Amino acid sequence: MESCTKYGTIDMHGNPARKETTGGWRAGWLVLVSEGLAALAFTGVEVNMVLFSKSVLGKSNADAANTFSIWMGTLNICTLIGAFLSDSYLGRYLTCVVFQALLIIGLVLLSLATQEFLLEPEGCGKIGNVCNEPSPAKVASFYISIYLLALGSGAIEPALATLGADQFDEEDAEENKSKSAFFSYYYVALNLGSLFALTVLVYIENLGKWVLAFWLSTCCGLLALIFLIGGTSRYRRTRLSSNPISSFSQVIVASVRKFKLDLSSHGEGLYEVPGNDEKECARKISHTDDFKCLDRAALMTQSEKKLLSIKGKTRNPWKLCTVTQVEEVKCVLRLLPIWFCTIVASIVFVQVLSLFVEQGAAMNTQISNFHIAPASMNAVDIISTSTFIICYKRLIVPLYFKVTKNTVQTPSELQRIGIGMVISIIGMIVAGLVEQWRLRYADEGETSSLSICWQIPQYVLVGVSEACIYVAQWEFFTSQIPDGLKSLGLGLSMSSPALGSYLCTIILTLVMKFTSKHGQPGWIPPNLNQGHMDRFFFLTAALIAFDLVLFIIFANRFKCIKLEKRDEGKETTEDAIFLETRRLLS
Q: What is the pTM (predicted TM-score) of this model?
């Protein structure tokens, strides 16, 4: 058993996972390649969704941006569905296989719909060459395909990332270092796949060859599934945990039932099963003093003490919960304020693929005889994000130590999120200033003579802020969530862009409603030269600044999770429960 992992993972047959034959970077790299190809497949559709909505479906700038935001919001909400299923029902590997297959189905349907009846007349779909307005049935087929794509792509993200992290034993010093690095490499893989889509597929799409681009995305999606299945025998797996909805509901119901009972000051007399359950790889969580009202769920009445003192008797989970069960609810509640702040911060990253692209389309996209596709400027964002992640530990951390003269501790996850918010504020201010300059050089039509290259600083700043916020957010949420809910924690983290997308849609809709009164074109009209998109960028910066103040308050008050070590206590049998109850009775 010495060659088995120490943190409770199993192999494909349900036996304890052996280090020599399972996990490690051999399995980790298959997950990274699969993620890169899946990201390429999805980004091939995502990156030019705004342009497709305008050129093929005939939508306006504001409608196209709202369609994109709602679609991206749905995509990221689906991360919670995937996380829930992977933790409690399907397992991480099977969740990835099922939803990657669904991703491929969505891509096939989109490719067929575009090929057969969306591009009418022939040759339409290029910039400035709008297709005929499609019928409601044809539009419906388009929406069915892209929302299948959103479900498939969104649901696999937390499961795939957590599956990759499971390949490294956190209680092995060397493997724990690799596990720490995995999330960074995972984000780099995601960005490299997206980069290929931005530099190759986007140009194919701008030429109006949407069918070719979508079929290439479909092939990449299929390759992603093949690489994932290729590691089936080598992946380490975790045992399924209990349904978190049921578990959390039990805590709420039990605490309400005992609302009138008095609690001790430091949690004495609360029920907990001694030791670790051999059937579970989850660790127990130590009691904390916040959210005291929930502690009543674990408070034992005299009748419950007498019942459990009888060997063979078990508790009613809707009347008595364990301390660990209560603390799991507390962990999620503590994360909610931080999660709320990251939702607001995410409205910046939604604009990179919508308003930034529309701004670039209204600028001079020619450099000599070379035409720069506005959506391909997202490559700058991806390159800056990946470069920052790769250089973080090799260059930025040593520089941080040198400047602060602190050679012990690197910036915490919460500090990195705060730094990312500051950089995103600067990025939005720069975007607003660039828009003001674009308007100064606007022509009588819908464009400006200002070069699209002036967008590079805002893309770089937003890319660096994205690297700071998202990677730190993933690490933070997975470290502050109980063992059995890792995918749910990562899914919660990944869903913040979803609500950020919806929030951006609401803000944009309200702004257009109030700024387009009395015959005014509004801040973001179809012709940007008649609007003031710079004001929307400055408004976004102000919202993030207010969000940063709230984040600092919540971060200073945050209490970290207290997990027991895995080797603490070996008894988890009925005898251990019986002895603990007898101790409480005495």
A: 0.78
